[in-house]
Specification:
Elements (H helix, E strand, L loop, with lengths): L3 E4 L31 E2 L5 E4 H4 L5 E3 L5 E4 L3 E6 L1 H4 L4 E6 L6 E9 L5 E9 L4 E6 L5 E7 L2 E2 L4 E3 L8 E7 L3 E6 L2 E7 L12 E9 L8 E13 L5 E4 L9 E4 L20 E4 L1
Antiparallel strand pairs: 1-21, 2-19, 3-18, 4-7, 5-6, 6-18, 7-17, 8-14, 8-18, 9-10, 9-17, 10-11, 11-12, 11-13, 14-15, 15-16, 19-20
């Protein structure tokens, strides 16, 4: 399958902060969106193989010193007291957003006491869809809407630790599907939770966080070999026309929001990024 690598120039986004990744690293209160925020859109399929490329300019790290790269394990999030300065919260996030789509991550989530790890889609409005490895309890799937819990958490009984698995989240207007190694383990329909359904542009966030205030040893909490991201909508950027964090407030430039599946694309070049077929 032919995929496209997106390289970003001239754009730096600040990290979201230092809150709990298993709780989305999003404030747990309703959020009003800053209407001046611009969410640059992924204009085609993004793919990175960390086993070959190492650091990727389309991703931004909250603490670059806490992320390592090698040809055997790919990108690694390492909670190390020597580089984390007692702030054991490390994330790797995309500089672009999608408006419905699919993410596929080949990763190993480590079971470590008092360390939580998340593979997530997150929006500026506090929406989230994720896989979470909470402490030693196992893998959970969850959604959040406007920064608040939706009581839609489900535990997944899979042997996740000490091995790589393919984690997939497919987010459509009609449903969300979570899959592990190609097998769908959960489906959540829009009709079952309409008011709570995530519906604002999302970036991809991979991260780990610990409740410990100090550590004696370093821990490798998350390893990522490959990442593939598809945007089902088109356009070059998303903005909010008002402070209400819902689909009706999202404006897309030079494109359209999908009705349910991938939209036929055209190529765009903008000041935000340059896309080149590989």
């Amino acid at each position: 399958m032919k995929v496209t690598s997106i390289i970003f120039w001239c754009l730096v986004l600040a990290p979201f902060g230092n809150s709990h990744p298993a709780q989305s690293q999003i404030k747990q209160v309703p959020i009003s969106v800053n209407t001046t925020n611009v969410n640059p859109a992924l204009t085609n399929t993004f793919y990175v193989n960390f086993l070959k490329t190492g650091r990727c300019r389309a991703l931004v790290a909250s603490n670059p010193k806490a992320i390592g790269y090698n040809s055997k394990t790919g990108a690694r999030i390492i909670l190390d007291p020597n580089v984390c300065d007692n702030n054991f919260n490390v994330t790797l996030k995309t500089r672009f957003y999608i408006m419905f789509g699919k993410i596929t991550i080949d990763a190993k989530l480590q079971n470590i006491q008092k360390v939580n790890t998340a593979i997530a889609l997150q929006s500026d409005a506090g929406d989230e869809i994720n896989f979470q490895l909470i402490d030693n309890e196992g893998v959970y799937t969850d959604i959040r809407r406007n920064g608040s819990s939706t009581n839609q958490t489900e535990k997944v009984l899979v042997p996740c630790s000490h091995d790589y698995h393919t984690y997939t989240i497919e987010w459509r207007p009609s449903s969300i599907k979570w899959s592990i190694d190609g097998e769908c383990i959960r489906t959540l329909s829009y009709s079952s939770c309409a008011r709570l359904y995530p519906q604002t542009p999302m970036l991809v966030s991979l991260g780990s966080w610990s409740s410990l205030t100090s550590m004696e040893d370093q821990f490798e909490s998350l390893s990522i070999k490959r990442m593939r991201i598809e945007n089902y909508s088109t356009g070059i950027k998303y903005e909010y026309c008002n402070s209400s964090p819902n689909l009706d407030s999202v404006t897309v430039f030079k494109g359209e929001i999908t009705k349910d599946g991938p939209v036929v694309r055209r190529w765009f070049k903008s000041a935000l990024h340059l896309a080149k077929p590989r």
